[in-house]
Amino acid sequence: MSNPIGVPIFDIFSGFVLPLAIQRLILVFIYSSLAWILLRFTPLFVRSMVYSRARFSRRLLWSDRRIATITGLMVDLVRVFIVIVALVFCLSLYVEVTGLFTFLGLFSAALGLGARPLVSDYISGIIFLFEDLYTIGEKVEIFGIEGTVEDINLRTTHMRAPSGELFVVPNGEIRNVRNFARGTFSLGTVQVDVKSSKLEEVTAVLNRVAEDAAAAIPELIASPEIISADGVIGSQTRFTLFAKAEYGKGAVVRRRLLGMIHDALGATGLEVGS
Q1: What is the pLDDT of residue 10?
Q2: pLDDT recorded at residue 6
Q3: When you count CB atoms within 10 A of the terminal residue's CB, does the N or C end of the chain come out lower?
Q4: What is the mean pLDDT of the chain?
Q5: What CATH architecture does domain 18-114 belong to?
Q6: CATH number, domain 185-268
């Protein structure tokens, strides 16, 4: 089949070639589109991967908080990787491979020197993937600030203080973490000030309370111990009833111990304080 002027249609299009600049723009569009699609679906397949890993973990079961934390960090990490790979592919269309790697090396060195705190934050965020220091939803203390962890990403940790403020802490600055959610016991300690003239009587009453508390308060881990915090005897002596309770039950145990001590001292006619 031929056209009216006698030139085959195949011959017309066989010599048609897109300009190099247009070809590169098309490839850039393709790479960018693929990267955009991967970025959109990253949370989906990362979440599935983390859930599968948590389900078949042989050492210990992951909590929902741990899964949410790992998922968020992994999503950020995979997205950064996708963006970097897409940029490298796009730059390779305009720069030779040798020059590209030289440029990336110089850029990495400059970034490491000029943006050291930022790089440190991201590296610390990656380390948090492997070190289970804290997870989303746990109460922690960082830099003397107490709060509940609301979000963890590769660069920062977001904490909500009890008063409502939101604290954003760079991961690279975190050195010491006090995690209130990882304790094994809570203290239900009670202090009692008594007259030194009634020392023996009060000691006997507190010993009976300690024995009864072990059976009456199921949240106690062990029988309370009676100690003197300062070891000083004056007109008054301070006794400390040292009690270990199940984690998170310290306030309950302390309240019940106070009631038992008050009732026991009142039944014997002994006064507390002044």
Answers
A1: 43
A2: 44
A3: N
A4: 78
A5: Orthogonal Bundle (1.10)
A6: 3.30.70.100
